[in-house]
Amino acid sequence: MNNINPSYIDSYINSLLVEDDEKLNKFREYCEERALPIIHKEVGQFIKLIINQLNAKNIIEVGTNVGYSSIFMSKVMNDEGKVVTLERSEKFYKEALKNISDFGLDKNIRVYFGDAVDILDEVEGNFDMAFIDAAKSYYRIFFDKCLKMMKPGGIILSDNVLYQGMIASDELVVRRKKTLVRNLRNYLEYISHDERFVTSVLPLGDGLAVTYIRSKECYQNY
Q: Domain 7-219 adopts which CATH fold?
């Protein structure tokens, strides 16, 4: 149980999901055995839905880890779209490059090495979708930097925004996470109340925020 949904709910939802890519399944199992923070299955299914709904061809991701989500999203786009992803850990950056190469997606996925707070200013492009899954205390910064590169009607997904239930209940907050909780709560207030966006926070995985960007005028010169 992750304090978001009862384990039997998560188990049932996951039992409905079908992933027929054997190689990707084995990669997920490998990541889970190492307890790497990859996307939950139900979150992946929702991402698949959004990519298809948007007919997304260009995605930016903040937080590569070992490349699972980048590979997953590229596969959803039938290896036709482009993913730009950023990773600050040199160890994970190198591992992600190897994994992406193993899947034959070197031309589809570009990995930047460095702190996203700085590297996002160097990225060029117009993106249909952004996926934020990195240092939680910096979500507002990541969001605002991605916002400048989003196409009209684009969607920004922010993962783990309920953070083990702590964001929704003070009783669950542990002392060492107080700053993180405060920053995430402020972030959710921002994306939920700003009139430029339409946001829904969903109890999927560890919490997923889905933010629709109303129009280009909303964020131009922001």
A: Rossmann fold (3.40.50)
